[in-house]
């Protein structure tokens, strides 16, 4: 499976535009001078070793943390500088898959997927249930609608998390370490699911991962972060970076997984 | 390149062509926005067949699929032919998937008959009794091992727990004990004054605080404060697999987590009760001085005359037992908790309820025993 490049015609505003972002907490700066853009319909990976700030960057992109400097824009509209109402409206067009699924333990799987629909759509109860069932079936969990999160496995929780992230047919879906804790087959299926979602709805996909197989299989473009640089040390297509980069940190990271 | 119909809200038009209905969808279909209703569109119309088209649709998502599915369902029920050949391949695939999930979805039945319900509840109660006695046994064995090898005990953890459940509980224990003494003195004063027996307020407050109220109030405060904290901490550790990690390393969770807490409470509870006694007497003394005009020195002498060592020691024996009961209830509920956020909350609640229940039951057993012994 080779990554298909999304059409770049139209040249509208980028799906995500990050300008000179600085991220950190208290007096500690984790990342600074971060600038990059993600095109609509692209599968974009944020990679790097442990502790380099991948998850921190993701938290800033989705608005869970506020940047100490710089801006984040989505489709040309400000996000990190927007007012509360503007941010809320934008959040409805996001989906996020958390590392452990982050399912609400007191709700059944169907209710987990249905909650965003109940909150943000004018749909009837019956339609909401229908969509929730469809989304669960799309991630391969048909028949498990009435189970509780405690009754299913870790990989299944992650897939329910994905179904929930997709409930509102988002324009951008963020994935935090989607393969962590999954077997290679499940992880591969998840990758295929990601591509299918992109091809079906033109969804923009942003993935934080260090799973090399996924990076080479589905990433259109990657940025690599580094802990000591506190910033981006490489940007481009994964295969080209692995073959042509002059930076030993980049080639060492990527070549271990090349040829899979 | 985008046609004018591709933007704007979701629209649908139906035109009659050769006795059939040509249904054309247009605009942007977003699930978060309102969309046309199929039933309103076909109300009052008759058609031999319907033809679905969506050339003028811009962005679309599941809401469009739902609309088309509704159309198909309607057509099937009304025995009308439905042509969906003009729809894109993706949409037809999604429609098929939606129809498929609808047929395959079977509700997961959690209902059970009365008989099996009672049976399961009985088995569960038996299992819980077994784990409770196993936990108690393990705690006793752990304590015996502590006596044999005191150097292996986690004294640091124990001291820290003592600080948490003892020293840090002093403000709340002070306030409540003082106020309880005050309330009792007021109640006694109203009655005793009628007989000119004002000074006996000291006897009444002193005895009831030292024998009952001091240990009891301290225990109930600690059950709510520390018992719940023990349960929540252990339940959270269980949810994070920290307790499993101890077990896989061959470390007994009871010795590592439960014993330091039990010992801390067993040591601190009598001290807290003693402290509560003092504050309770002080509360009574305040009322006597302020309302009954009994000098504090006279009040103190009267208190001393009525309380002897057996009164204080019965209170302390009880509070030691209460401490152990609170610790056991808190730790046991924590260790038994379900591995979820709700499980942590339930563990804390049931720890407090269990501890208060055990305190009251224990107190009544002590009352009978002390009466029998003549203490």
Give me the secondary-structure topology:
The complex is a heterodimer of chains A (260) and B (375).
Chain A: E1 16-25, E2 28-38, E3 43-47, H1 54-61, E4 69-74, E5 77-78, H2 84-91, E6 94-97, H3 109-120, H4 125-138, H5 154-165, E7 172-176, H6 184-201, E8 204-208, H7 212-218, E9 221-226, E10 231-236, H8 238-244, H9 248-255
Helix pairs in contact in A: 3-4, 3-5, 4-5, 6-7, 8-9
Chain B: E1 11-17, E2 20-27, H1 38-42, E3 49-57, H2 62-77, E4 81-83, H3 89-104, H4 114-148, H5 155-165, H6 170-193, H7 200-239, H8 242-248, H9 253-290, H10 296-306, H11 309-335, H12 341-373
Parallel strand pairs in B: 2-3, 3-4
Antiparallel strand pairs in B: 1-2
Helix pairs in contact in B: 2-3, 4-9, 5-9, 6-7, 6-9, 7-9, 7-10, 7-11, 7-12, 9-10, 9-11, 11-12
Descriptive overview:
- The complex is a heterodimer of chains A (260) and B (375).
- Chain A is α/β, with parallel strands linked by helices and 260 residues long.
- Chain A has a domain at 41-55 and 92-255: 3-Layer(aba) Sandwich (Rossmann fold), CATH 3.40.50.
- Helices cover 36% and strands 23% of the residues of chain A.
- Chain A contains nine helices and ten strands.
- In chain A, strands 6-7-8-3-9-10 form a six-stranded mixed β-sheet, sandwiched between helices. In chain A, strands 2-1-4-5 form a four-stranded antiparallel β-sheet, covered by helices on one side.
- In chain A, helix 6 (184-201) links the parallel strand 7 and strand 8 (204-208).
- The longest helix of chain A is centred in the last third of the chain and has 18 residues, at 184-201.
- Chain A is globular, with a radius of gyration of 18 Å.
- The model of chain A is unreliable at 1-11 (pLDDT under 50).
- A four-stranded mixed β-sheet of chain B has the order 1-2-3-4, covered by helices on one side.
- Chain B starts with 10 loop residues before the first strand and ends with a helix.
- Chains A and B meet through helix 4 of A and helix 2 and helix 3 of B.
């Amino acid at each position: 499976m080779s990554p298909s490049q999304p059409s770049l015609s139209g040249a509208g505003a980028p799906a995500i535009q990050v300008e000179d972002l600085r991220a950190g907490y208290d007096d500690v700066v984790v990342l600074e001078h971060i600038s990059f853009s993600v095109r609509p319909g692209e599968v974009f990976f944020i990679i790097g070793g442990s502790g380099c700030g991948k998850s921190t960057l993701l938290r800033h992109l989705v608005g869970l943390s506020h940047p100490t400097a710089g801006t984040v824009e989505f489709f040309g509209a400000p996000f990190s500088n927007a007012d509360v109402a503007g941010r809320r409206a934008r959040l409805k067009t996001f989906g996020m898959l958390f590392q452990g699924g982050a399912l609400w333990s007191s709700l059944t799987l169907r209710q987990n997927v249905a909650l965003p629909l109940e909150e943000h759509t004018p749909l009837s109860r019956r339609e909401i249930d229908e969509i929730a069932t469809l989304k669960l079936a799309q991630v391969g969990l048909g028949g498990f609608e009435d189970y509780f999160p405690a009754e299913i496995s870790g990989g299944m929780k992650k897939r329910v998390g994905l179904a929930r992230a997709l409930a509102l047919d988002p324009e951008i879906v963020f994935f935090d370490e989607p393969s962590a804790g999954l077997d290679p087959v499940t992880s591969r299926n998840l990758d295929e699911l990601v591509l299918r979602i992109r091809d079906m709805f033109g969804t923009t996909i942003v993935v934080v991962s260090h799973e090399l197989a996924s990076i080479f299989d589905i990433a259109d473009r990657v940025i690599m972060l580094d802990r000591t640089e506190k910033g981006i040390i490489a940007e481009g297509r994964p295969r080209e970076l692995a073959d042509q980069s002059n930076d030993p940190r980049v080639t060492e990271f990527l070549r271990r997984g090349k040829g899979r | 390149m985008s046609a004018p119909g591709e933007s704007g809200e979701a629209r649908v038009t139906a035109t009659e062509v050769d006795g059939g209905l040509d249904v054309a969808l247009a605009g942007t279909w977003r699930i978060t926005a309102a969309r046309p209703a199929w039933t309103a569109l076909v109300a009052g119309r008759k058609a031999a067949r319907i033809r679905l088209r969506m050339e003028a649709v811009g962005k679309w998502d599941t809401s469009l699929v739902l609309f088309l599915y509704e159309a198909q369902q309607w057509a099937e029920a009304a025995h009308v032919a439905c042509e969906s050949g003009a729809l894109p391949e993706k949409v037809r695939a999604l429609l098929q998937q939606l129809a498929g999930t609808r047929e395959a979805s079977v509700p997961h039945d959690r209902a059970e008959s009365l008989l099996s319900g009672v049976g399961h509840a009985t088995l569960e109660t038996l299992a819980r009794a077994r784990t409770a006695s196993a936990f108690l046994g393990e705690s006793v064995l752990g304590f015996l091992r502590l006596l044999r090898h005191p150097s292996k005990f986690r004294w640091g953890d124990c001291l820290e727990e003592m600080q948490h459940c003892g020293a840090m509980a002093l403000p709340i224990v002070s306030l409540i004990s003082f106020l309880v003494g005050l309330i009792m003195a007021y109640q006694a004063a109203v009655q005793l004054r009628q007989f000119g027996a004002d000074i006996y307020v000291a006897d009444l407050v002193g005895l009831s605080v030292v024998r009952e109220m001091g240990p009891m109030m301290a225990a109930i405060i600690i059950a709510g404060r520390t018992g719940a904290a023990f349960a929540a901490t252990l339940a959270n550790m269980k949810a994070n697999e920290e307790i499993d990690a101890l077990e896989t390393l061959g470390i007994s969770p009871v010795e590592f987590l439960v014993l330091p807490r039990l010992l801390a409470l067993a040591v601190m509870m009598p001290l807290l009760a003693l402290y509560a006694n003092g504050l309770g007497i002080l509360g009574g003394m305040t009322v006597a001085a302020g309302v009954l005009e009994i000098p504090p020195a006279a009040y103190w002498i009267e208190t001393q005359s009525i309380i002897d060592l057996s009164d204080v020691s019965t209170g302390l024996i009880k509070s030691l037992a209460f401490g152990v009961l609170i610790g056991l209830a808190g730790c046991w509920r924590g260790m038994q908790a379900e591995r979820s956020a709700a499980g942590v909350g339930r563990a804390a609640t049931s720890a407090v309820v269990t501890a208060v229940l055990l305190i009251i039951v224990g107190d009544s057993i002590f009352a009978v025993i002390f009466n029998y012994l003549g203490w």
